[in-house]
Amino acid sequence: MTPQDSTMTTSTPASREIPSLDAYDAETFFRDYYATEQPVIFRGVTHADGGAEEVCRALCDKIAVDASVTERLLWYDVRQEMIDDVCTTPPVVTESMNPDTAFLRDNCVRVWFNSGGHTTPWHYDGHSLHVFNLQLKGKKRWTIVAPETPLPNMPFSKTCLFEDNSLKGKRVYEFDLCEGDMVFLPRYWFHHVHSVGELNVNVNWVLMPKQQPAATKIAARESEILWLLDKSRFAMPSGVKWMLDNFAGAGEPALKTLTKDVTLGRGMSRVAKEVIRSPMVILAIPTLIRKAKTVMKGKKILSGLLQTSQAAQKAA
Ligand SMILES: O=C(O)CCC(=O)C(=O)O
Ligand SMILES: [Fe+2]
Question: Which residues form a coiled coil (predicted)?
């Protein structure tokens, strides 16, 4: 995507200024942001020695030889230990990753390497995840939309139908995340992220909170889709069954927490709501093709970085 394309992703951006907070002010964070599921930025929370390329190589060298790493479409899922000597984990993150209050996965950190111009298309994160996204190197421009003013999604999916969404009437924040900054993005918040720096390295910590989500349209949608998947698990491919068994890293308890209030009526009405939307997919085909191209380009760069590290380690 060119910079011009990225400015076309929003129309009428009536964005507010996102609040920021000191990463050591845990009391305010948990009371005013975590408990109410509202986003907040922590400026200059941590630092990684060296330039973007050096940090990228150091992380890739570890990822290349660690069997526990999972390669995802645009990032790597890794264990906390993998990043411990690269940067200090901010205290609000450590406090949030508490097994008493959150379902945690082993690979609870995602690592992103994106070159300038890359755009992560509009979506919200699956598995009911809260995300702490730290800009370790480079700079990214974020646009986020609250789950109570949702954007149109692909049927049964977390990705959005269109990229040029009108943001009129939506609760939206637009902000730059610069080196050392971290955003707390609560579950179900829509986001669109444009890589501004030449080479951008991000780490995010992810967790599924045990508390019930704030009552928003998207929270209800997620619970209903999950309930439907669970009820029809016998007819689902093994990948879906595996996902449900390991949902948010905790399986059954996490699944039960989210779906406990879903009734048969709500489940059936969800099917109708999603199916009614399906003709829109035809209108979205040009956007889908553009998105797929962007994502594939991002993936190629990600895999290329890893292959370079693997080749260097073989040669050594
Ligand atoms: O950094 C990006 O490009 C996307 C980040 C994202 O989608 C996330 O942290 O959930
Ligand atoms: Fe995301």
Answer: none
